[in-house]
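Appendix B. One record, verbatim.
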Amino acid sequence: MQRSGIGYDVHRLVAGRKCVLGGVEIPYEKGLDGHSDADVLIHAIADAILGAIAEGDIGRHFPNNDPRWKDAASRVFLMEIRHMLGARGATLINVDATVVAEAPKILPHVQAMRTHIAAAL
């Protein structure tokens, strides 16, 4: 059986935070606000995968009121989800994700993001 999932995430940009997308720190004067590193790209991918295996969403497994996840690298979430897939005998075939943002410019970082996400999964 093949399943697919759709993930979506939004965080606002704020001063005083690192800007992390796809596990890559992007030089920018603002970062994404959140409990973990607030990596919206990885969070959306995580939600899509969790949805495909009927396991709820990222908040169910990595709640923002759990101190274990405070400032955590979102890559850890993908690695945990990879173990969930394995436990269910599921195989990830493809991931496609879109980032909608006027800034920062991400094109120079896309290959590093792909590499980082693929390594986690």
